[in-house]
Amino acid sequence: MTAQTDYALPEAPSGATHAAAVRDLNVSFGSAHVLKDVTLTVPAGRVVGLVGESGSGKSTLGKTLVGINRPTSGEVLIGNQDFATLHGQRRQQMRREVQYIPQDPYSSLSPRRTTGQTLAEALDPRRADPVRHRDVIAAALERVKLEPSAADKYPHEFSGGQRQRIAIARALILTPKLVIADEITSALDVSVQADIVRLLQGMRGTVDSAMLFISHNLAVVQEVCDDVVVMFQGRIVEQGPIDAVYRDPQHEYTRKLLASVPGSPGFTLD
């Protein structure tokens, strides 16, 4: 396998600084060295796909960015702040700048809270008041194509796809610098996956948050993302604009991944 390519993902067109970046990041759990000298930028306002087979380090990277995992070495920058060095209240404040959407829409929402209570808690954990935040909550629900009346319902009253929409609304309601979407379509039926993909497509360019979209489904990544990063055995082996990488992959592992999708390389979806 060849080394990581020199391509750097572009900054946002406005010239804004990156939403997040990692530099020479290493993460180990005991004797297991999971992330190895990872350097990556997520430009402001863009959707970056992170692909690779199970065990490649994708979710470990996402959870490190959100502060669940601690780096062994290296930097984790959210805006221009090194997240990895923050402690206490400052770290808690910074965690609001990075929001995480988990894979399972069934376990990510409290069964004892209405949607309105869940979204109000995201806005103000100390004084979660859905009435006080009614207008903001209604706008967040409408953004993910749900009626404002959904605020009064409990998770068991929704389908899996609707729950995932609520999880997306919760992540976006604070307008964070970065949203990490960790395999958010993989637990859904194919038809529901398509609905979520269409929702994310419609939101591109309409929200200020950048997104790191983690997935093993290269077809979904092609539909949703501006750029793609390929991980193999804890390292980034290729990255670039999604059309360029899919059309002309430079790394052997990228070619292997694309060859597993019908019509690859250079496949397209109808």
From TrEMBL:
Matching InterPro entries: AAA+_ATPase, ABC_transp_ATP-bind, ABC_transporter-like_ATP-bd, ABC_transporter-like_CS, P-loop_NTPase
Pfam families the record matches: ABC_tran
Gene3D superfamilies: P-loop containing nucleotide triphosphate hydrolases
Annotated ABC transporter domain residues: 20-258
Superkingdom, natural source: Bacteria
MF terms in GO: ATP binding
Assigned keywords, A-Z: ATP-binding, Nucleotide-binding, Transport
Family: Belongs to the ABC transporter superfamily.
Record protein name field: Peptide/nickel transport system ATP-binding protein
The species this protein was found in: Arthrobacter ginsengisoli
